[in-house]
Amino acid sequence: MVRIGYLGPEGTFSHEALLKYAGGNLCAYSIHGYASIPDILYGVHNGEIDEAIVPIENSIEGAVSVTLDIIAADVDLKIKGEEVMNIKQNLMAKKGTKIEDIKQILSHPQPIGQCRKYINSCFPNAEVKCVYSTAGAANEVAMLGGGLAAIGSAAAAEAYGLDILAHNIQDGDNNSTRFIVVSRDDRERTGHDKTSIVFSTEDRPGSLYRILDIFNLWDINMTRIESRPAKNQLGRYIFFVDVVGHRSDEDVKDALTMIKKKTSFFKFLGSYPYSPG
Amino acid sequence: MVRIGYLGPEGTFSHEALLKYAGGNLCAYSIHGYASIPDILYGVHNGEIDEAIVPIENSIEGAVSVTLDIIAADVDLKIKGEEVMNIKQNLMAKKGTKIEDIKQILSHPQPIGQCRKYINSCFPNAEVKCVYSTAGAANEVAMLGGGLAAIGSAAAAEAYGLDILAHNIQDGDNNSTRFIVVSRDDRERTGHDKTSIVFSTEDRPGSLYRILDIFNLWDINMTRIESRPAKNQLGRYIFFVDVVGHRSDEDVKDALTMIKKKTSFFKFLGSYPYSPG
């Protein structure tokens, strides 16, 4: 049995992503709900579990900074897979609650960011409370009721017996989240792979350009670049880059060797197959 | 009198940044505290106020996404100045409250992100509640007391009569926030200027590289690049870039003209003097 962790309880988007990832093979896994993303990632790092599925990026709200920061600096894990999930956020409350009764809205900070315009325009006076998961928010609303509402998946509404007061409340129709599966090892070549790295450039003009120039020289297609603060100084960044290809491909191997030489910090994060989406 | 908006009430880091920006010239300004960053930015856009000072980037927690998203897409404002503030976060509570009494911690989501490790290690069981400003958190703690604590500036503790239970609780010693001053116009050339733009690239391999290549050709120094999701599709990004120089400088003017031609979306965000830091 592969022990796999996710942001629990059941009914979270992470739980849905885990079910999609396991597919028909669910019986091969024992699944473990954790209370926070750091707990899950340290769980794999410390050997409590073998794998974990965590969100890394959302099409509206952007990077999940806690995931990026921990995999860049705090743990030594590899990405072995990804799942892209279409996300529909819903406003849910205890049966009988009316829209005009709602005084406080609970959710994870990511869905709150995804629904910022909706909250500001429909509930300018409501208090917004951040909790550790959408399902945790639904659970709290189910227990306390009153003027509370949660933002989360339809699965969470069903799991906690809540009514959906408003469907599809995210800002913009196209709301998807990319989850990564991390483990102590990445994946062998499948022929439709991508490779993730994180690096920081030297502190001189044109240094990021010189790195991207290496991909250009080797004709490697970069599919994503995400900057995060380097934390030691304002204006210094680390860059998360995804490229097409597997670490065992000749051109990827050569380009990474060169990039390692030309960066002040470099970490290989894994080669793994593309999500079918 | 210049009407300038900030994230109020008094005692927030935005208020401190405003005092630093106005300097000896404070009597030339009438200052207006707003409840949220969107309210401030729309306040300038709608002509309620002439200028606003808002946070854009923190050295630990990264971009202030709400500021970036609004100036990129929703309002037509120019950046006319910046201030970099060294930020020290403190845990504060009503007089007599002990560390072990604390059940709930209130703050703005940015300081909560800046103090993530501290909260997780010292208060793993505390509830974390997001409010609109650090001073608002201090105010709520001063009114309700009980097991509540706020995270914010020493100025907020003083303004609301709270005791500081722990000083400098941010993750890492180097915690600074860059604020921008926005208005309907940017600034004339001072000789020590930078220029901010935001653009999205065409959806084909190497398109970001080709833009950075333009800066390289014109020998323009890029000081910052920040990616944000384009919101219409996962994997599409917009890029916020700062370069050294003023829009009226010949080389900056030529490079921007070329970049405008080579991008699918381009917006000039302003030329303004560097913060003395």
Rounded to an integer in angstroms, the radius of gyration calculated over CA atoms of chain A is: 20 Å
CATH topology of the largest domain in chain A: D-Maltodextrin-Binding Protein, domain 2
Give me the strand/helix succession of chain A: EHEHEEHEEEHHEHEHEEEHEEHE
Which pair has the most extensive contact? A-B, 50 and 50 residues
Helical content band of chain A: 25-40%
Residue share in β-strands of chain A: 25-35%
Distance between the termini of chain A: 26 Å
Quick check: average pLDDT of chain A? 90
Let me know the number of strands of chain A: 15
What summary fits the major beta sheet of chain A? 6 strands, mixed
Oligomer: homodimer
Quickly name the level 1 CATH class of the largest domain in chain A: Alpha Beta
Which architecture of the largest domain in chain A per CATH?
3-Layer(aba) Sandwich
Q: What coarse outline of chain A follows from CA principal-axis ratios?
A: globular
Count of separate DSSP helical elements of chain A: 9
The named CATH superfamily of the largest domain in chain A: Periplasmic binding protein-like II
Given helix and strand content, the structural type of chain A is: alpha/beta
- How many distinct domains of chain A? 3
Which regions of chain A have little confidence, pLDDT < 50, spanning 5+ residues? none
Could you characterize the architecture of this molecule?
The structure is a homodimer of 277-residue chains. Chain A folds into three domains: 2-87 and 175-183, Periplasmic binding protein-like II (D-Maltodextrin-Binding Protein, domain 2); 90-166, 3-Layer(aba) Sandwich (D-Maltodextrin-Binding Protein, domain 2); 193-272, 2-Layer Sandwich (Alpha-Beta Plaits). Chain A has nine helices and 15 strands. The model of chain A has no long low-confidence stretch (mean pLDDT 90). In chain A, strands 1, 2, 3, 4, 5 and 11 form a six-stranded mixed β-sheet that branches. A five-stranded mixed β-sheet of chain A has the order 8-7-9-6-10. Chain A is α/β, with parallel strands linked by helices. Chain A has helices spanning 13-22, 37-45, 65-73, 109-114, 116-122, 134-144, 154-159, 207-217, 250-262; strands at residues 2-7, 29-34, 51-58, 62-63, 78-86, 90-93, 104-107, 127-130, 148-152, 163-166, 176-183, 193-200, 222-229, 237-244, 265-273. In chain A, α8 (207-217) packs antiparallel against α9. In chain A, a hairpin with a 7-residue loop joins β13 and β14 (237-244). The interface between A and B is large, with 50 and 50 residues. Chains A, B: It is an enzyme of class 4 (lyase). Chains A, B: Residues 196-273 form the ACT domain. Chains A, B: It catalyses: prephenate + H(+) = 3-phenylpyruvate + CO2 + H2O. Chains A, B: Its EC number is 4.2.1.51. Chains A, B: Pathway: Amino-acid biosynthesis; L-phenylalanine biosynthesis; phenylpyruvate from prephenate: step 1/1.
